[in-house]
Fold:
Amino acid sequence: MFVISNPWGCMNSSPLEIQSFNSPLNQPVINLRRLAINSKKEFYAEATEHDWIKQIILEFDEVKAENVEEEIPPSDLSLKFSIQKKQNETFGEHVLLCGNIICQFNVECVRCLVPVHQKIMADFNICFVAEQLAEKSEYEDTLSLFIDQTGYELYFYSDNSINLIDFIYETIALNKDPFPLHDINCKGLCQFCGENLNKVACIHVKGS
Ligand SMILES: [Zn+2]
Ligand SMILES: [Zn+2]
Structure:
């Protein structure tokens, strides 16, 4: 575990450092050469505006509106974060990414397959360090870093650029319900005839 003092962490930077507030992020790759050390930028991306982020949420959507009779809530994904490039002896050039992901999509009830709406709100603090550091023994089992009393998940960048796709997928995958049920008492489908037992009692149900 690394602990270093960092007076310019995500939580306490001066607003004067922000060069552009809430710029749209038109593609998932951020070129680190274009970030000055210690300067801070803020970005957002939304499924309604940005195709690359719409593609991500479509992959989590198990239910397409056109395939079901009932009306289902729309799916959506938005991402907001600040990004700050830093440099020190311990981590070399590294990048702090702090923000949140809000997303909603529709999956199938694991028992009866009707649509279930999922909504995820996740805050994140991430530190990207250069890929070359991954080979050092200190990083072997390291998943997070502590910088100025703030914990950061550890990710690696390569070629002087950060690709946000993996981290967005992982954040949604980790926070989504692995066993979605439309109702905690869902009776599921009959294993013999496939009837939805929440709606009908088929002849295979005991006692009917
Ligand atoms: Zn169900
Ligand atoms: Zn049946």
About this structure: The radius of gyration is 22 Å. The beta strands are 3-4, 23-24, 29-31, 40-46, 76-88, 92-108, 115-130, 144-147, 150-157, 161-163. Helices lie at 51-60, 165-175.
